Amino acid sequence: MILVIREPATKQQIEEMLETWGVFIKIVVDIEREILAGGGERHYKCEQELLKDGSRQRDLWGADSSPYTQEIVFESIINIRPSENNRSMEIQSPLIRERVTQITQRLLGGL
Predict the structure, then answer these.
(1) DSSP 3-state of 67
(2) How many CB atoms lie within 10 A of CB 52?
(3) Which residues pair with 26 in a beta bridge?
(4) Which of 8, 42, 46, 98 is deepest in the core (most CB within 10 A)?
């Protein structure tokens, strides 16, 4: 189940997003709107939910979040953007990584 999270997630919402993988959640963070979509099997499905919700492609970055350990892995195929100097699946920019971290911790931090 993919949920768009605008306010800190409830325990039930986190559990729903964990249903697919169990210990981590596939997330896509909109670093401008400060929201995220999480859950499901693939990042691109979260990306599609945010695009339908009005997000801009250039503001969306994919990662995996483990609510139990608070660990974030900054890898997703949607992050490959040579036009934005991001040539790998991993988010290269320390500034973007920090924004993804801040937003994720605020929205998914309370398990």
Answers:
(1) coil
(2) 10
(3) 64
(4) 46
User: What does DSSP say about strands 3-5 and 25-30: parallel, antiparallel, or unpaired?
Assistant: unpaired
Share of the chain above pLDDT 90, in %: 92
- 106: nearest Cα among 3, 1, 11, 9: 9
Q: Are 65 and 72 in contact (CB under 8 A)?
A: yes
CA-angle at 6, arms to 100 and 19, nearest 5°: 80
Read off the pLDDT band of 110 (50, 70, 90). Answer: low
| Cβ atoms of residues 36 and 76 within 8 Å | no
**Whether the predicted model's global pTM rises above the 0.90 cut:** yes
Predicted local confidence at residue 1, as pLDDT: 86
